[in-house]
Amino acid sequence: MTVSEKDLLLAILSMDAYNRGYGAGIGDGVNVDAKGNDIDGLGQIGSTVGSARVINDDVSEAAQAAGFYAVAYDTPYGTVISYRGTDSTPLSDTNTDRIHGWGIGVGNFMREQARLASEFPDAVQDDTKPGSVIFTGHSLGGGIAA
User: Which of 84, 80, 56, 76 is nearest to 135 (CA)?
Assistant: First the structure.
């Protein structure tokens, strides 16, 4: 099976969402709070991973309370939005996703993560700018992207 460069980039960006914004799994040590926590992971808006440049993310209090995180990239293939899935570290994230996100998988779109996911593309690309957005994600994030 041959994997295209586009598909490989989408897979990388689906995992990159776990390493940016609040609760990032990997940090670069650049923006560290008083407790020694890297508050933005691998970088903020304007940082890059390969040929993708971060153009927006959702680190709002509402997103954090719902266990939701989305990040948008400008890529050679257009705008890509990646949704973070369930991260079991800390265990409280699994419980938050169970309450606010897992119901999406059985068609309950009244969950808070579904609302946030439906609003995020509007923050990334306004109605006057034509073009398509590519959605990707891993685990719960892949379900939201679908």
Answer: 80
